[in-house]
What does this fold into?
Amino acid sequence: MIYSAKLSAKILKHIISSRYKGNYKFPLVLMLEPLFKCNLNCSGCGRIREYRDILDAKLSLEQCIEAADQANAPVISITGGEPLLHPQITDIINELLKRKYFVYLCTNGVLLDGFLDDIKPKNEFSIVVHLDGQSETHDSSVHSKNVFDSALKGIKKAVKLNFKVRTNTTVYSHTDIKEISGLFSNLMNIGTQGVIVSPAFSYAGIDDEHNKLFLDRQKSYEKFEQLYNNLDGTRVYNTPLYWELLRGKRNLQCIPWANPTFNPKGWKSPCYLITDTHYPAYDEFLKNTPWEKYGAGKDIRCKNCLMHSGFEASAILSMKITDLIKIIKWNFTGKIK
It folds into this structure.
């Protein structure tokens, strides 16, 4: 299953409980960024540019746990920066698991091999490795040699040790769909559980040269229609409803509060991509962010965004009966067709 029965039940209980209390702005996934520093300089990454003056800042174990408890989302996605650079990353993960959160560790994979010696696999813990193409393409995108090989070595070791492993791929304007399709086939063959995909999106702090890498909505529709037709049995961790959005077959409203971001500067408002301010407390972030000002047709920065953190939850929370059938089928098979 894509989502285990335990996770599915936890998410459903969280949705029902929140709505029963009259709360219609609640998080499903906390995007936890314990630090900004990274060991790579990826073309499409905005964090190391947006926060370049405070790259040494990091959250303590206690701050990470407090943020998780404030948001009380069932799932926590640990991102960055490169989270494996954090000296307390193993303690952070173990403490979150102890508190019954489902944890996804997002990493570039360079340090994955050594990290696996310090932690044990658990059903509630998943490792997500970022790969944007085969060896030459991926190494070029991160401006460093042998990164793909290091990540693949870590993935194979994690699979062998029975960790849940999936990958995350960003699709850019220059992405070769056949190459990505081949990458996905190779990843399935070595035992990864599936892939996550997202169109390249523009962060605050990205310069004009890097902005050329990103897709407008029409180009995203075209790219993902091609990819959809070349998945060849790949297990996909994005919902079929989100894939319909990516292919221009469905309209969804972004609900950024469903995936709030917490980092060393505080609660990032309004969303993972746009930074207008930071709040010290989750309740302040939720109450004081002017949500009505954001979204396609309202803020120019939202015009081309199809980021899964804003739209996956929207797809789930706006389901009809026919959508529910698609979701159930996908959850058991990983197939979106």
In short: The mean pLDDT is 93. The chain has one domain: 5-333.
